[in-house]
Amino acid sequence: MPYFQKRYHPPGTAPGTLIAAPSRESKSIPARLSVIEYTETELEEYDDINLADYRFHLEKPAITWIHIQGHPDMHTLRILAELFGLHSLALEDIINTGQRPKLEHYEEHCFLTLGLPDFNDLKLQIEQVSLFLGVGYVLSFHAGEQDPFELIRGRLRTHTNRIRKRKADYLFYALVDRVIDQGFPVLESFGDRITDLEMELLDHPDRETLHQIHQNKRDLALLRRLFWPQRELIYLLLQEEYSSLIQEETKIYFRDCHDHSIQILDLLETYRDMTAGMLDVYLSSISHRLNEIIRLLTVISTVFIPLTFVAGVYGMNFGRDIPKSPLAMPELDWYYGYPLFWLVIVGIVVGMVAYFKHKRWF
Fold it and tell me: Could you write out the DSSP letters of every residue in 125-165?
């Protein structure tokens, strides 16, 4: 996964330009639009409705939640901007995904951009989630393929659920909380990967182990870039300027969400430290294995040094043709010379090995 994944217009493009910027990714996912209108006693759902004819729905006292799954087209965004007074800069951020988490406060609504991490085929993916909160409505956009808010819909369909009894700010909190809490299962997966890597480092580390360590460091760096600003954004939602949109009784839930973001950051920093230490463990393990190999080869070489000396001395055959010479090797003419030679060789080997064992050199 690339570190830089933001879509952007060519430098010099006018701000708020609603034209999809080119992307290095695969094709954009077609948008699917769904609408939920609810009160404490009633709930209505619509799929793929015509937003141009939706204006009369806004006059109802119900709370409206419009969710767009995938990459919306320009026509849909312009209609939403007309219906809810959305700022063109916010719409530009929706189109050009890969934004840094951000929070913007406008006159009648606020705009929040978050990142939703997930694993797909054991690869980390970060998908953008954009949210608008206004009086009586919530708009949500998710650029991925799978809808992350299906569980929230299931809760809304329950008549006794707390979301149905509160205003739009609590629905907004439920969506934000869903995105923030996604960090827990993602980091749990990282914990399993780190545990497996630790076992590999102690057993048989190889180049694939080194590759996995670097991949973990890369993924954790991306998550850090995501989780740090999101923690600050949740804290900003508790400030006084958002009091007109977020009621006091809902702020306690946002404080709980802020606490979750801090826990996620603590886990992230712990895993980053563990992963950074793994590189040192890997190098130490490789060095230890190399030392073991060198020590074994040294022992073998040391054992063969005296054997080579003995074999070399008796392989010279000096004085064999002059048996009466006082300087000739008498052992060359012994009847049991050859067996005695091997007895000496074996004795040297056994003695040296016993000495090395006693010294605990191997």
Answer: EEEEEEEEEETTEEEEEE-SSS-TTHHHHHHHTSTT-GGGG
Do 178 and 150 meet the contact criterion of CB atoms below 8 Å apart? Answer: no
Q: Is the pLDDT of residue 254 over 70?
A: yes
pLDDT at 12: 45
Give the pLDDT mean for 41-57: 75
Is the pLDDT confidence value at 250 over 80? yes
Instruction: Find out whether 295 and 215 touch, Cβ atoms under 8 Å.
Output: no
Q: What is the pTM of this model?
A: 0.76
Q: Which of 253, 257, 38 is nearest to 160 (CA)?
A: 38
d(CA 73, CA 91): 11
Q: In this structure, are residues 121 and 28 in contact, taking their beta carbons and an 8 Å threshold?
A: no
Q: What is the DSSP letter of 40?
A: S
Q: Please report the DSSP string for 200-256 in residue order.
A: HHHS---HHHHHHHHHHHHHHHHHHHHHHHHHHHHHHTTSGGGTTTS-HHHHHHHHH
Average pLDDT across the chain, whole number: 82
What does the block give as tokens for 65? 């939640």
As a whole number of angstroms, the distance between CA 95 and CA 112 comes to: 14
Would you state the pLDDT for residue 4? 47
The residues, any chain, with a CB within 8 Å of residue 29's CB and separated by 6 or more, are 69, 70, 71, 143, 144, 145
Range scoring the smallest mean pLDDT among 208-212, 214-218, 266-270, 336-340: 336-340
